[in-house]
Amino acid sequence: MTCGKCGYYNIEPDNFCGACGAPMEGNYGSGPIESPSIEPVDAVKRAFLNYFTFSGRARRSEYWWFQGFAAVNGLIGIIPIIGQLASFVISLAIIIPTISLTSRRLHDIGKSGWWQLPFFILVAITSTAAWTPVFLWGFAPESLPSWGLGVALISMVTMIAILALWIIWMVRKGDLGPNRYGPDPRQAGRQETEDAPTDPS
Fold it and tell me: Which of 108, 129, 151, 189 has its CA 20 to 30 A from that of 17?
């Protein structure tokens, strides 16, 4: 049963929450092994509450709802002046929680949070290599070498492949049970939470 105070899902029937100790209300039972998905508002709250938390694990629902929040912020930026200003401020505010949340999501599938760095570098390189020849072809075709469009095509395909792999990782179900980065966030076994090893790397 989910604690109404902290959101912890208690598998074992008890009168008090195994995480925060708050009294539990309602019907008690063994419940499912997997706790319910995180709601959108809760996902955004968790991201900001764990602003600088790069250790531990995060569920798919927590990650993707926060990405949805970031996408809505991008749409706000379409609104002239006020919307653009608000979007810019929010974008600055979500840089760090996005990195920390992504680290926890990678931990959930057993991978280091440092995987973000090579992905970012590769996407930056391939996108630059893909769009520079296209830009030159459109505005200064005489300065584009004969092999330029070939480089653009190869770079674009490579970039798409990298992004596809990233999406596959982000939608992948987390490791069942504790892994070296912490307890399974979908399970709320009290012993599991107490005994699971953690690795902040």
Answer: 108
pTM: 0.72
Tokens coding 102: 């992504």
How is residue 173 written in tokens?
Answer: 């179900």
Q: What's the CA gap between 98 and 103, in Å, rounded?
A: 9
Q: Is the dihedral of CA 28, 31, 34, 39 positive or negative?
A: negative
Tens digit of each residue's pLDDT, the chain (201 residues)? 667 666 666 655 555 565 555 565 544 444 444 566 788 999 999 999 999 999 999 999 999 999 999 999 999 999 999 999 999 999 999 999 999 999 999 999 999 999 999 999 999 999 998 888 777 776 666 767 777 778 888 999 999 999 999 999 999 999 988 999 999 988 754 434 344 444 544
